[in-house]
Amino acid sequence: MGELAADLGVTTRTLRHYEAEGLLTPRRVGQNRVYGARDRARLRLILRGRRFGMTLAECREIVDMYDGAASSEERQLTILLDRLDEIVADLRHRQEDLRRTLSEVTDVAEQCRARLAELHT
Amino acid sequence: MGELAADLGVTTRTLRHYEAEGLLTPRRVGQNRVYGARDRARLRLILRGRRFGMTLAECREIVDMYDGAASSEERQLTILLDRLDEIVADLRHRQEDLRRTLSEVTDVAEQCRARLAELHT
DNA sequence: GGATAACTTGACGTTAACGTCAACGTGAAC
DNA sequence: GTTCACGTTGACGTTAACGTCAAGTTATCC
What we know:
The structure is a homodimer.
Chain A: H1 2-5, H2 12-20, E1 27-29, E2 32-34, H3 37-51, H4 56-68, H5 74-119
Antiparallel strand pairs in A: 1-2
Helix pairs in contact in A: 3-4
Chain A binds a DNA duplex through helix 2.
């Protein structure tokens, strides 16, 4: 039941959309969907990624890598690792952008507080 | 000239779009746009915000606050400050989401490296 | 055994953030 | 003096990520 998955604050439509995009692959009992632990975990990762601007395509790429990392083929692992390093670099960049913005916003808030304190002297 | 502003890696269309949305307000010389230091600064802030998932509306709200923070009306300042604190909380949340994701991805990368090292023994 | 509630597929609608194309103006260059 | 590169407005197109019906199926409750 997608209802239970709506515990995570999404609609059933979202679940079907993610399934259509290949992000989730629930089992079927009859024709109803059943979400196992794996899908629930993937969903949490996806939603977390979405909150700081990752696209569904990026989310899918990352969650799929969690599966491929257990591979045994050297060639595959090397390619995967290169891509992972790119993703890490990208995430670090975003982290820095976020950090700067947060820093500036807290500065503005501080100026407001100072201004208010001044008005009360 | 929007050309100069395309130094920041955006198209002129983007600039006009931001202007239409009230994010930028370039002066006009004749009917041509001229972007001053203020607009350039705002643009950088906007683009930075966009990189970690802020919408244009959120960007506008924040950059507009930079202007309002110099206000002298206590009532205004109080409202502004409350909103700023909400924004700070939101940004911290995103920061935490990003941090967790980054942490997990680097973990996967480490597993890959370990796996590769093992294949070379 | 009929209503209700939750599931399904299918299809079209919506919003944000631009892309793209048409038609026109304009100063500089040759 | 016309070609060209860059500017303008206006309008329609596009993509992502869902929302929102419509119409039908199944399990359950009373």
